[in-house]
Amino acid sequence: MRAAHFYLLLLHVFLTPAVLVNAFDPFTTTVVLGIGATLGRTIYNYLHESCDPKWIAFNATGLEVDLERKLFGQHIASRIILKAVNGFMTNENPKKPLVLSLHGWTGTGKNFVSQLIAENIYKEGMDSNFVHVFTSELHFPHASQLETYKTQLQQWIKGNVTNCAHSLFIFDEMDKMHPGLIDSIKPYLDYYDKLDGVSYRKAIFIFLSNAGGESIIQTALDFWKGGRDREEIELKDLEALLSVSVFNNKQSGLWHTSLIDKNLVDFFVPFLPLEYRHVVQCALAEMAARGFQPDKSVAEQVARDLVYFPKAERVFSVKGCKTIESKLDYYT
What we know:
Helix content is 49%, strand content 10%. With 332 residues, it is α/β, with parallel strands linked by helices.
């Protein structure tokens, strides 16, 4: 409150014509007005989020630590995300926007990773004015309005990138998005220097989808049945299969999309189904986040009460870590 009052006082002193006219000659008035306006902008930018390094600065170490300590059972995703985001954010002249497509069953960490990326780029994290989240069922509910949505989406992205080149766009529930809608933003993801005077090269686009989850689960099951450790699963075991599966899935917003056809998606990132041990880790981490002393016995009780599949073997959690927060409310 004190800072806000100070800011208003400065604006009053420097920008009130009556004060200036009575106190200074025209030349001095012009100088003081210029100083006042500059100082006012400086203070405004200090108090309010703006598109500059004070508010937008990539923390590579922070992202690495967060992925290591907070994301469980996702060795492939962690490695890809860290290298992709680090390489992009440290490149002063990227050739195109960074486009990541995150795939996997519910509760495996796709939304959580998007949050970690935002928190390590923007001072305000997910609350930043430069982070934009679209949810299919909320923002694009009616198939009959598809053409309207396309125009609105183009205008929204253009306007926000014009405002700040380092904008982050997150599209959740891609598996529920109307096919063809996402193709409307293809030009913004391509290798163009500028489009209508706007450069999109420093923006980041993240697509979140359950589509392709079956292929990921089957691969994880095959490794488990073969007695192989899940950490042996590599990107090459999933990426090609995943892109084809998503491209041909009519229930996916990426169905037959030119984004895949034209190779504009930089990485298809698989999120593996979580095992019992990973759910325990999630529960312990949630306790710590709440300021509680982590209790492994409680975490194990929470993990045991979840539903697993296949039914006989109970290998993978059906909902991953999605319900851990509410479950802990019951046990603590």
